[in-house]
Protein 1
Amino acid sequence: MSLADSRPAIAGHTLSALVARYGNDPTRLVQMLRDLQAEHGWLPRPALIELAAALDLSLAHVEGVAGFYRFFHTRPVGAYRVLFSDNVTDQMLGSRALMADLCRRLGVAPGRVSSDELVSVDTTSCTGLCDQGPALLINHHHVITRLDAPRVAQLADLIHRRVPVPQWPAEWFEVVDNVRRADVLLAEPAAPGTALVAALARGAEETLSELKRSNLRGRGGAGFATGVKWELCRKAPGTEHVVVCNADEGEPGTFKDRVLLNRDADAVFEGMTIAALVIGARRGLVYLRGEYRFMLDQLLVVLQRRRDAGLLGAAIRGQVGFDFDIEIHLGAGAYVCGEESALIESLEGKRGTPRIRPPFPAEHGYLGHPTIVNNVETFCAGVHIAVHGGAWWAAIGTARSAGTKIHAVSGDCERPGLYEYPMGTRIGRILEDCGAQDTQAVQVGGPSGVCLSAFEFGRRIAFEDVPTAGAFMVFDRSRDMFEVARGFAHFFAHESCGFCTPCRVGTALVVKRMDKLAEGRGSRHDIDVLFELDKLMHTATHCGLGATACNPLRDTIQKFRPAYEKHLKSLYFEPGFDLNAELSIARRMTGRSDAGAFFEDNIEDPAS
């Protein structure tokens, strides 16, 4: 093949083979669409019509799924599809200038396909490589790290010469773990099977008791008690129970699960197997984010090695009736699928729209079966608890936040990477260890988390103080915190699933106001409107994405107000200003009929 991808027409027998490979199962639709696109380069409508007919699904359903995920293309794209990571940390390292340089060299506009259909260049959300950015994806399959100007120039030349991606310099694709401080979870891996043997010796009931005794809380951000979740699922009626690992760490700034999977996938799979023992599951599913496609082959090798060693499959470790296996489902680019019910919808071959809860997955999850959903770090912690016992884990950290926590540190620091500490560690300690200087802010837990200013660096990582899913982005005093918040606003607007109006419209309105401020056309009234949008979205959206979308906005307005005020116009009544429309908005939002008083309180004197 001379190009990055082969692009044959989809013949009937090829489509039939693809569908048969997935057992003619419509719940595997997302995986079929991935394979179909890999063969054709994109998803033409005739192929979708054939796929819908083969699965006895409506075309509307198939097209709806294909249109939901950003890595699916229902219109032609370049044979080389280049996606620059657009997370704030990549931008801080110059990603946008590098992307402009590549577009200039290739003669293609961002978001467009070249006239010869050779290449398309665009941005994507965080790729989970913040510790070694700027980074990009090639054809959703390969990652390139540590971009710089010479590398971009060589990349353009390789594309011009139509060199297949696997023949590009191998060092470009190097992804390093960057473990800077290891504690329990990042220590040297134990021999595969060690924790499973311990769990089998205790039995399912006592293993669950140890987990509850440990006070382990989910490491995905919400912090629900893991033992309680497993117990609810264990007791839920049903002929089949399911274990799901959420490896869709799409929160910008987070990359800890990537390292855990690369460094010790055995621990992740072993934690899932112990969970299966406790709840009586026979089936396990790993939802691997689409940006981590480059890890898939090595994960499949680990799974097969475990089967060969009797650690997966029928009669695990010789115990008759203990049958459990794991398969990997590859996502296709949707931040909202990090939410457990949206993830389950995607596993079932649907759009990743969060479900109304209750019922919760532990009672009614994947295909209606009782299902536990935990993230990668949680399953790894479960392995250590199985070996050392619940009291050991509970003795680490604080009374309400047991154990250790892994932090993915990136941004303005000398040593980005992973840092593992006992719960209760000071924010300032992490900044000292990573070599941060003149820090003005830290975004903990990603955009949906909390933004801390310098006077808060004495606070501690713990569920009772500063909870986190793992992201730890550092900003020194050279950074404009308004622009950081604006970038996050664009991220949430782009990633909204569109299901509910408050989120779909609210995130767009936030972007509109933020962009207006950035252009120097804003007023204090716009800041007040942003506050009102935050209150509305926090209480009225369908899921957590909309509820947390304004978190960085709220924090930065409160803690870095001058960064906003420097964008305000001194003369508000510019040409085209609709006074009556603004008065109407003011009355609705404040409940005050005295519009003159409202403007006196919130807008600069027009005569100033």
Note: Residues 256-279 form the longest helix (24 residues).
Protein 2
Amino acid sequence: MITETIQSGVTKALQSLGLEGDIRLEHPADLSHGDYSTNVAFVLAKKEGENPRALAEKICVELNKNLPPEIEKIEIAGPGFINFYLSKIFFIERVNYITAKPDEWGTNKMLAGKKIMVEYTDPNPFKPFHIGHLMTNTIGESIARITEANGATVVRANYQGDVGLHVAKAIYGMLKEGGPDGMLPASLQAEIIGTRYSWGSNEYDTNEETKKEIDAINKKIYEKSDSEINILYEHGRKVTLEAFEEIYKLLGTKFVHYFFESDMAVVGAQIVKEHTGPVFEESDGAIVFYAERYNPKLNPRVFITGAGLPTYECKELGLTKTKFEKENPDLSIVITAIEQDNYMKVVTTALSVIAPDWASRMKHITHGMMRLTSGKMSSRKGNIITGESIIRDSIALVAEKVVEREMSGDDKKAIAQIVGVAALKYSILKSSIGSDIVYDPEKSISFEGDSGPYLQYTAVRAQSIIAKAGNSKIIQEVEPIEGYVITNLEKIIYGFEEVVIHAKEEFQPHHITTYLTKLASEFNSFYANTKILVDDNPYKDYHLVLVSAFYITMRNGLYLLGIQTPEKM
């Protein structure tokens, strides 16, 4: 990458002056001030007792002795900043490279040979697919794609709670209120089971006798000791998992591994029992981990209850063991809501004692919460909002207000789905992962910028220009004739590779959304001020290649967000 070329040149210049230092490059806020800038002269001048500008001038003299062809010129700005201006040929070669190798653009080999497991979504059968699951899925899929773009082999995993008190509450609701009609589609059956869970949960919280009955059902589920409960359990688990798969298909996610609490409970309980004494302790019939002994900020946690049932913490131990035994990843990433932060810290602390190697290869990423601008957590149908309903509502809103009326029914439906999902995903990913999100459905489908549909529409506009030109192939290598001046569009396009690396280093997809929004804005300015397809445009051929490079960058960037680029809008 060009940054390495610049850093290498500055290092050699410093060495020739008998100096050495950490060389940091930044992009000037104003692109007219250069493509890269370094403050190394400031840093070293203080150390060497020199004037920063005088030292910058010495460094520039050395740099100019062997200036690489990618750099057109070097200038000193202000009291000692060194600004680098890249050459016209550099940008032209970048543009041609992008159109020659579109699928490679934005990828690198930084994580080549590494296997990284990313666990995300984690919905619970018998419960609705809620907004938190939608956020975790969107963030997790984007992080998985960004990690792949940086060269790693990514293993997508989904951990689902198919046992636990929530299941007992749902089954209690089905026993008392009736289960779903088995002839209904899986999504409708799952919706009914979700209402039974809500009813059973309310009963559990308000009626002491009901609480005892549901606790008994919970034990029977683990033991598989009641035939009627077993039948309800197997059917409810099957249809809710099928309903989840429909949502995953809408969101564009495919998992390699599905882990279930029912399996992890056995593995986790065995780990806890094997380490009771040196790590875990018995207390009033339960088995407890006193995390505060290792980290005073943490609290003790029960891993096996007095009734002999494994807790979430216990199952998490089993999950970690299973992950490393199945795939042995170099890094295991888990993405959850912020509420699980303390819980995961306790589990990781326990693992640092039991299996320090596994603990050192784990990373927990937490996200904030989502709320609506109206403050009302209800869908357009008047029901309590779920992750699925917010997806369907977004698609319906696009179908009503955005998609052209003259399209065929099938085209309209397909595009509404692509654009509706994009609007929702962009709303989640445009902010830092740890931030809370205020979701405004109307703004999310706006074409005025800062939205997924805006980015999609801009990409489609670029593709339509290429189609109008009659170019069946967009791969061509041309150079603009003499006199052509590089625009900000080329300068922003070439920065895509850096943004992908930055997003990987911080595990923050919002760097991609910010970049793409800036890129789309610059393209629209270019389009508004440039008559690309007129016959008397002396740069027509190059402009078409540039538009192609923009389209490829936008398409590849949207892919990293888990957003599909439609063929038309």
Note: The chain has 21 helices and 14 strands.
Protein 3
Amino acid sequence: MSKERVLITSALPYIHGIPHLGNIITSILPADVYHRYQRLKGKNSLFICASDSHGTMHEIEAKKEGVKTEELVYESHEKVRSLLEEFNFDFSYYGITDSEQNRSTTEHIFHKLDENNYIEEKSIDVTYCRNCEQYLADRWIEGECPECGGLARGDQCDDCGELLEPKDIIDPYCTHCGKKDIEFRKSKHLFLQLNKFEDWLKEWIEGRMGNKLTRSETLSWLNEGLEERCISRDASWGFSIPKEGFEDKVFYVWFDAPIGYIGATRSWAEENNEDWEEWWRDDSIEYFQFMGKDNIPFHSIIFPSMLKGTEEQWNFADHIVAGSFILAEDVKFSKSRGKGLNLETALDVRNSEYWRYVLMALYPRNTDTTFSWDAFKEKVNKELTDSFGNYVHRILKFIDENFTSEIPDGEMDEEVAREVREKIEEMERELEDFRFRQAVNKIIEISSLGNQYFQREEPWKKMGSDPEECKDIVYTCANIVRSLAIVSDPFLPKTAEKLWSFIGMETNIHEESWTKAKEFDLRSKTITEPEPLFEKIKDDDIPDFDNEKNKSKKQGGEENMISFDEFKELDIRIGEIKEVDDIEGSDNLLKFQIDVGDETKQSVGGLKGHYTEEELVGRKVPVLVNLETSELMGEKSECMILAAVVGNKEPVLLEPERDLEAGTGVA
């Protein structure tokens, strides 16, 4: 039986870099749609999310930029939160996992697991870089995935999503120095005994998997047999482990991240004078989780096992809903590898309403789907503009011009009313089954139905000959507009607000009742002067993204081409390295003073550990002189030494065949 209070959580966006469309299409966006839908259905819906703020990627980036990790994380958190606001996500609360509420909850769950003998100590081989003379956290080691040959990044493959151990990675290298000078050393760590929950999990998952993909991925793990999972890391950014002998380690990010749902609920409760335990310990709550398929095992196996192991009363997910990947040129969207549109650049093309519609129209429920600009244009131009937007504008314009902006008092066409109700009921069934692509398409089917009716009945011809029938036709069409406003609200909240105001409604559309969409009693309302809801996408509207994260191939297979005139603008000369200095706090950067002929310029480059000072001073190298000045680790870099890069990011300096004077041009 459906419950009156609904808890909805979305997989937390990892805030190392700006999230891309693939980060929201299967998690935050469907969660938001479902939350808005539940509210229209009269449910008390709590939508919780937060920035996933721990993990070694933040440490890596902070080290590169020469800033404190905490400073970088909170700057990223505010940036991401601002972008999510632009996408109109209606969070009840959006927090951050690096909160005191999450810390105390994480420590409590850990202590309970430890007390109940679900945590074991074990010495394991930990990656160590001899060149950097330090232990490497998972994300500080990269190489080839043993399963698919793709990019393995520490504990997971970026391409196939396989969970890995660093020792299994083929040809691993250190992300700090780029060298393969790696060994494995013994270090004591803590492990969650997942295998002890196998039998319980097999019973628990029945009826909770929201779609075929979620079930198949979960059963795949269970059928292979569960293994213990390390929950500690040799790192400094994160929650320190409150156990003697482990204070210098932190919890693995995937231990405290799902607990972040509870932590964020506690933060919401404190700010709103509510009881958080009513949402996490009261079984009158119906709990929905939304995520991408790479997050399934953490939600269907690891997180429920963590809660079960406390031997306390917790609400477990009633529905775990996962979607597949959205692809860009047949590669999974990946912000770390520069694949796909991020939220910021997407909003530069069109506002969030366009993206909310298109992404839900492409929702990859059980299989991957590919994003293309052609698909984007087709969805916007043919569906949003030509069908939905055209119908609304056409009807309201007709009322404005022929009925002095007053919706006439007529009778609803019963056949049309029946068809609209059927479409809305079909939409309900699709939403209840998490078929978002099919559900959002009902908006277009309803508007198409209205368009066909209006065109078939030709009210403009009956204005004089049969004014009463004309009123009935217009009344019918206006009521379809109201129905569209309500059912479009979960997907297109700003558009729904506009429609609501266009037809003279003064209530809050977001607090309306879903059942009103199936009642056709809108009459005697004065409409406002309508304006087009959407604009068509033209070829010129899609920019040429001239940054690495958003480039697409040009015709003929040519990519990143520049003209000869652009090449001539490059001032490349032979330079002589005069001085070399270390940069405090950097593992791979050096500062150079380079004679380029008519002046000496400073450069900062990643040659530390590859060449000694003796090998560098006096060396003649090609230098790009007219480079815009930048700053790295607080040091000004005015030019760039050109080098070849071989293997795994190993730089090799280029030298002229014979001795040349500093300043000699390269052409």
Note: The CA atoms of residues 97 and 419 lie 47 Å apart.
